[in-house]
Write a structure and sequence with these properties.
elongated; Beta-Lactamase; alpha+beta; about 425 residues; binds adenosine-5'-diphosphate
Length: about 425
Amino acid sequence: MISTGDFVRELTRVIALALVGAAIGWSFGHVWPGAALGILLYALWQALQLARLSAWLSAEPEPDPPESNGVWARVFDKLYHRQRRQRVELELLQEAANIITEGAASLSDGVMMVDGQGAIIWCNTITQRFIGVRCPQDQGNLLVNLLRDPNFVRYFQSGDYDSALEIPSPTNTALRLRVEITVFGEGNRLLFIRDITMIDQLERMRVDFIANVSHELRTPLTVINGYLESLASMPGGVPEATLQRALAQMQSQSNRMQALVSDITLLSRLESEPPSDGRGLIDINALVTMLVDDARCSVGKELAFHVELDARQQLLGEETAIHSAFGNLVVNACKYTPAGGDIHIRWYLRGEEALFEVEDNGVGVDQADIPHLTQRFYRVDKSRSTDSGGTGLGLAIVKHALLRHDAALEISSEPGVGSVFRCVFPAHRVCRRAA
Ligand code: ADP
């Protein structure tokens, strides 16, 4: 920091003071003490500058550098500039750290840093919701003292983090979490905690769905196989009556499989395909007339249909999806209403909303079953549904068809009294027919 020029100047200064001191001393007959006094004065000045430097460096907030001259002026100046540069660099670093911390804090995944001893260094805000750990309150605590799930403790202490760990959330058992750990620095660990509840549910739904479909297909396949085996093993030909009965049974089971496959296909299309561009005005009057005619022809029992339609209101949507939804509700009303029953079908306005309603005075369902009715393969009475050719997918189809129209399904029912299934369409889906 001190150049040769400075050194020479300071040397000159000390020599000059020594010479001045020697000259004054000489006039008093003490050359050497005079020179020593000159050097002492120089040393005192240096000591004074050091004291000013020390006072300046320790002052808070830092004042401007002290005025000086010679090498000390340059020392103060250089230190001042270096300090300013460091302060700017520190501010930039702080800013970068703030951005990183804020970014991590706003992540929807939990992030936590733990030191080599397992003590919490830092965590973002969502870790409180996931595992109940808060920063800065829990900083310095051992993580395993706060997250005591035995599987987690074993995983955390094993040091083998090749695969992730799935655990239930200790703060909310409905949440399922995936924990991943990476090691960095001197044994420090970085934890990523992700909410996988949704993925877990979807996976369970997928497994359940496959199990349900296999189960649904097993009965008709077993029946058809049984008939085929017994027909094949009959010596000397099959009697005509037996053959006809077998064919009728096989036909009915084959129809059941066909209905199941077409409902699964329809449901998957409703769930996965974006709403088609071919949306248009649906003439509910024509649609309901067709559904009631179909029902009358196929129901095979005496039922009275009462239709009340506000023919001025049209629906904006996908005709095929609405046809499936309304059709399933009408078919269900027929299936679950004994002969002699009444079925009311209504299409009307309630305030701004449009309602399609199917009311029957059939078997009804228990209050506890209502929230589950739109789940795939949920049946209140398995044998009744199967006997009437039900796939258990009808109301799931209704729900998804309505979702594509921003609509909702309202169900009210009482065992032995009857049921009302009501599709509620928002105002923007309703269009008044021009007079
Ligand atoms: P399913 O093919 O079994 O009819 P759905 O999904 O259409 O399947 O209906 C699910 C269950 O809801 C049915 O098994 C039945 O128990 C009940 N359900 C549906 N509609 C009615 C109704 N109108 N009256 C009584 N119960 C009904």
